[in-house]
TrEMBL record:
SUPFAM superfamilies: CBD9-like. This is DUF5916 domain-containing protein. Residues 40-184 form the Carbohydrate-binding domain. InterPro entries: Carb-bd_dom_fam9, DUF5916. Pfam families: CBM9_1, DUF5916. Residues 239-327 form the DUF5916 domain. It comes from Aquirufa originis. It comes from the Bacteria.
Length: 730
């Protein structure tokens, strides 16, 4: 049987090899010009005729190694102020058919016609600054580290404009040198940088690149990048400083027995300063920090035994987040089960236990990144909240790069207040044995002065990934006393092992509408660390899972679970007593092309749930007739039957409506409505955002929240804010 399995894998993997980087890297040398160009997407200046050009013609998806279906030409120029990049992307679908469901910044990669640039200014073949634009000029930018950790919410200062016609679309970038990071220079010595260009053509769901890489990787694997040669950038300016002050007017009204009755109005002044001390070092300062315009959290009805991980949405903490990330978290390539362990999680700063904001008086962050090492520090001073008159937060992070793409690091956090001092320390490592096989792991301990408790946690994860198969094994241990007060852990008192394997099977024998068949099997086993007993086992298999040519999914799965409760469990208010439970569930997922004007997905699951049964539906529908208008509706429905001590039958509904209207990528009105029947919650968030000049904003935000309190009475909150921020670059 093993022989036939290996033969099957070898056959399916034929012509899908993970090849090595080109021995002779592709090169392009941009032309230096004297005058400043206007980036408008038209390329009508004479300089563009003379500009060196390369072709983005290596197809990664769907047919690795073939020539791209349509020609894509990239040209480069530069002067003392800007690096200019122009992409001419041929197509035949017509000027009104390019895919862009919305015009928001940092849009979904898989939903848009887009062009991207990955720049490795230090030529270390590890890290990249990434700038992208879709066909309508919306921007997407991020920082990438080893093609494994990403600062997706980093916002670079640059200009891009696009122009669409029936035969092509054009993206023209003007990138200030202050936005880029590169070695110091005397202004006369040429430099070589790593660079790659990539294009996503959504109507055929095709990815093409300039410098080839295997499909098991992304265009951000910079050891596969080409080379930008002979460029002479200006020396980094001595005063590369961004000053971003803000003015905020907030009015709030509260009514309820729990939250009290009050009406307040407040004018706030604050801001941030970003100082690029050198090409490798950046210092940030923030005072009277405010996040009033940040996205609201999406409601979740949690029916698992794990804590829900809500992502960070506040811009100050999102920038450079990857440097301070350590542990097993959703940002990693493969989570490897349901366990998350993070010694530091920024949502613990400026929010109380009920996720209400607490004023941040001031703070600072220092980041140093180089080819050999990275280090960073954060200090934040929080005002009165959670019963303390003030709280100080301190984070220190260090990592050392060694070998080709290996790293070892440490992180220490301290949360100190008059009532307690809590400290967390961790050591972590990432080892890439080769292009396919890697290891990551961490050991961490916590201690606090209130009760002198010490706790520990650790994890190790092996990951193998090539064009055909992905395998992982993840081991975690979390003690009952592990309490990272500045971090997050999804479950305590557990020893867990998670394994998984899935295949990426392609072949002409598959129907033409299927890109690849992805069967997989995943297991999780959790033991109580105190008793050694098994507290949960899960086996999930998706033997019929198909990824479609248009980006949609057609899949079915089965889920066998064993739950051994050692104490009461109360999902959505249903009490389930301790005991042993075995049940079996089935489900399927149908998802259409996510880039289409009309898209939908439906996941339906049914079967046992502890001592009863459960049906659940997670459905999403989106209408985007034009990129300037987007309406999305999601519905989560759960029906419990004969569950728990009271043999309850209960239905729970969560409805979310999102709308986005955009005049252009810089002026948008966003609406967000949530209704949750679990606690009779209704919330509305309306936000007008105008980027009147790059990274300078006007926000008008209205929020209303109604929910049922613990005493069964309605609690009501309303707020309105107007915020003006202004970026000045020195």
């Amino acid at each position: 049987m093993r022989y036939y399995l290996l033969l099957f894998i070898s056959f399916c993997g034929f012509s899908q090899e993970v090849f090595k980087p080109l021995e002779q890297r592709k090169e392009i040398q941009p032309l230096k010009i004297e005058r400043v160009l206007k980036a408008d997407g038209h390329l009508d200046e004479a300089e563009w005729v003379k500009a060196p050009a390369v072709n983005v013609d290596f197809q990664v998806e769907p047919f690795q190694g073939r020539k791209a279906s349509f020609s894509s030409t990239v040209k480069l120029l530069y002067n003392r102020q800007f690096l200019y990049v122009a992409a001419i992307l041929q197509d035949s679908i017509g000027k009104n058919s390019y895919r862009a469901p919305n015009l928001k910044r940092d849009y979904a990669f898989v939903e848009n016609d887009l062009f991207g640039i990955a720049i490795d200014g230090f030529n270390d073949k590890r890290n990249a600054l990434v700038l992208q634009a879709n066909a309508y000029g919306a921007q997407r930018d991020l920082l990438s580290f080893d093609d494994r950790a990403f600062d997706i919410d980093w916002d670079g200062l640059y200009r891009v404009r696009t122009h669409r016609s029936d035969s092509s679309w054009v993206a023209e970038f003007a990138i200030p040198w202050q936005t880029l990071r590169y070695p110091k220079t005397d202004g006369n010595k040429p430099q070589d940088w790593g660079i790659n260009f990539f294009r996503v053509r959504r109507s055929s769901n095709e990815l093409s690149v300039w410098s080839p890489h295997p499909r098991s990787m992304s265009p951000l694997r910079m050891d596969y990048a080409g080379k930008l040669t002979g460029i002479i950038p200006p020396p980094p300016t001595a005063t590369n400083i961004r000053f971003i002050p803000y003015f905020l007017q907030v009015s709030k009204n509260s009514e309820g027995t729990e939250i009290g009755n009050s009406t307040t109005s407040e004018l706030k002044l604050g801001g941030e300063i970003k100082w690029a001390i050198s090409p490798t070092s950046v210092m940030d300062f923030t005072f009277n920090t405010d996040f009033a315009q940040a996205d609201v959290d999406r409601q979740v009805n949690n029916i698992s035994r794990f804590s829900v991980f809500f992502p960070e949405r506040r811009q100050f903490f999102l920038e450079n987040a990857s440097l301070f990330s350590a542990g097993l978290a959703p940002v990693n390539e493969v989570v490897g089960g349901s366990m998350y362990i993070q010694p530091f999680f920024s949502r613990t700063i400026g929010l109380d236990q009920n996720v209400n904001p607490i004023a941040i008086t001031a703070g600072t962050r220092f980041v140093y990144r180089s080819e050999k090492r990275n280090l960073g520090g954060i200090y934040m001073r929080q005002g009165e909240g959670d019963g303390d008159p003030f709280t100080n937060f301190l984070v220190a992070r260090y990592s050392e790069n060694f070998g080709k793409q290996n790293r070892i690091g440490a992180i220490v956090t301290t949360k100190s207040s008059p009532s307690n001092v809590a400290t967390t320390g961790a050591v972590d490592a990432f080892i890439r044995f080769n292009d396919k096989f890697s290891f990551s792991g961490m050991g961490t301990m916590t201690q606090d002065s209130r009760n002198s408790q010490q706790g520990f946690a650790e994890y190790g994860q092996f990951l193998y990934k090539d064009n055909l198969v992905t395998l992982y094994w993840t081991h975690t241990v979390v003690s009952d006393d592990y309490n990272p007060e500045m971090g997050f852990v999804s479950r305590k008192n557990v020893l867990s092992n998670s394994q998984g394997v899935d295949f990426n099977v392609r072949g002409k024998w598959l129907p033409t509408f299927i890109r690849f068949w992805q069967p997989g099997v995943y297991t999780e086993v959790y033991h109580s660390l105190k008793t050694g007993n098994i507290v949960e086992q899960k086996l999930v298999s998706g033997p019929l899972w198909f990824n479609l040519q248009n980006g949609g999914i057609l899949g079915g799965y089965i889920d066998a679970s064993v739950q051994n409760l050692e104490e009461d469990f109360n999902p959505v208010g249903i009490r389930i007593k301790p005991g042993s439970y075995r049940y079996f569930r089935k489900g399927f997922l149908l998802a259409s092309d996510p880039s289409a004007k009309y898209s939908a997905s439906t996941e339906y699951g049914w079967g046992g749930f502890f001592d009863g049964s459960l049906q659940n539906v997670d459905a999403k529908f989106r209408v985007a007739p034009i990129p300037h208008l987007n309406v999305g509706l999601s519905w989560n429905w759960s029906k419990f039957e004969d569950v728990g001590v009271a043999r309850e039958t209960k239905e729970v509904n969560l409805l979310i409506l999102e709308t986005r209207m955009a005049i252009n990528p810089r002026l948008q009105l966003i609406g967000f409505y949530q209704k949750n029947t679990t606690d009779n919650l209704n919330s509305v968030n309306m936000r007008l955002a105008w980027e009147y000049q790059p990274l300078s904003y006007v926000y008008l935000v209205f929020n209303t929240l109604n929910y049922q309190g613990m005493d069964a009475t309605q609690q009501k909150q309303q707020s309105f804010l107007a915020k003006l921020s202004f970026l000045k670059q020195f």
